[in-house]
Design a protein that fits this description.
single chain
């Protein structure tokens, strides 16, 4: 598997709904020596929802992130060029719980 950045930002544009959606996946170390896959999703411009999945190693977290990216791409999401395309506070980044 090729190396991916620690964070991947995806967007979905449904023309019929006029509501672009985001899905942000971040692999992060936690305070206990493990790793976490942090997922934030929702409508662009809203705080969205956040879920944190804990993993024993960075490799496990990255593998889980790759699986989620493929799942979301099958649902019509596409990887955006830059994370700056959305205000990070709108992608649930204001939440610091882990």
């Amino acid at each position: 598997m090729g190396m991916m950045p620690l964070s991947v930002y995806l967007q979905q544009h449904e023309a019929a709904k006029h509501q672009p959606r985001f899905y942000l996946l971040s692999v992060q170390p936690n305070l206990f020596g493990g790793w976490a896959l942090r997922r934030a999703w929702g409508r662009v411009g809203s705080p969205g929802q956040v879920k944190i999945d804990r993993h024993a190693s960075q490799e496990e977290a990255e593998s889980a992130r790759g699986k989620r990216v493929r799942e979301q791409q099958r649902r019509g999401y596409a990887q955006a060029d830059r994370l700056s395309e959305v205000d990070m506070s709108d992608a649930g980044m204001h939440e610091s719980s882990m």
